[in-house]
Amino acid sequence: MLPFKLVYSDGYYLPIGAHVFPAEKYQRIRARLIESGIASANDFVSPQPASDQDILLVHTPEYVRKLKTGTLSAREELEMEIPYSPELVRAFWLAAGGSILAADYALNDRIAFNLGGGFHHAFPDHGEGFCMIHDVAVAIRRMQRDDKIRTAMTVDCDVHQGNGTAAIFAGVGVPGDLLPSAAGPTITAARPAKIRNAHAGDVFTISLHQENNYPAWKPPSSIDVDLPDQIGDDDYLAWLDNALSSGLRQFEPELLCYIAGADPYREDQLGGLSLTIAGLKRRDELVFRVARARDIPVMVTFAGGYARKVDDTVTIHSNTVLAADYALNDRSAFNLGGGFHHAFPDHGEGFCMLHDVAVAIRRMQRDDKIRTAMTVERVQAVSCFCRYPRKSTSSQKPAVPQRSR
Ligand SMILES: [Zn+2]
Prior knowledge:
Elements: E1 5-7, H1 25-35, E2 44-45, H2 52-55, H3 61-69, H4 74-80, H5 86-109, E3 111-114, H6 135-145, E4 152-156, H7 163-170, E5 203-210, E6 223-227, H8 233-250, E7 256-259, H9 277-293, E8 298-301, H10 310-329, H11 356-366, E9 386-387
Parallel strand pairs: 1-2, 1-3, 3-8, 4-5, 4-7, 5-6, 7-8
Antiparallel strand pairs: 6-9
Helix pairs in contact: 1-10, 5-6, 8-9, 9-10
């Protein structure tokens, strides 16, 4: 049995016909987790669909009305890149309900998964790139509305930039003066307890993505890392490490929403990065370990994954569950400072006055807690261009130094 919950429903299946998006992946992930013994049936919980009020915490009344009445324009449907149907609307409302439930569980159990969701290309007023409703944003706004959290951070490791996330939490395109009470007659939403923009600036967005890929227009996240084509495991992990460290120096989230796309995989049909399955698992472990070191609850969604073999996509997503299990059970701990490895017994060098690691080892030995130890030093290899901050969305955020090539 896992030490966290997996939110899942057969209703996550997206009725989109033959499509590059493997709509059956959710069922297959569930089956794999059980067959491999990673999870048991008791680890799964079923979500309820989000309410219209929940959806309206993020999306505009006009857009929600169009979705519920089947009145999207041909262009709007084309932009969404999945064929509209009332069943599809139900699947997205359910995915959003799943992310709300997973966020709730994460706040109690430190980690929870929505085995779906991660629809990070949805904007307040339209859908894009296979995404109708931004389930993660809905979950964050609902947690804030219920006063369960004040702040959140999104860490988006899908190969495509989280354009919807960036737009929603930067306030771009959010009609702050429109309240759900302005909805059409088919929507019975009550006015939410708080105005949607009340928390603008309370959500810090990080996106690591391939620069030369959809979306062409990338609205600024709090931190965007534009990765070059074909970047491999080690460089990717170094950049993720940098982005997480930088983000968590600037911002203290009460919930971390990890958008764990499987499409940075080297065999992905819609991606152009070169991560291996093992590298993607290390990516997951890094996110969970950093969050655990700071005691930040993590809610996971799966987003994209278009490997030539659907089985690989299923493996990558299943590994994310495994990585979370390791992270909660492992015995590692972090000192978020220290590492002053240039200090000598009789003098300091290179910004290092005292050798904290050596002191810690000798103290453990003196106290007979250990006899031996090993030090492993990692040098980060960086070879890509990171552009941040392009735009500050909060006056609380101090500026970070500009990085250069
Ligand atoms: Zn993607």
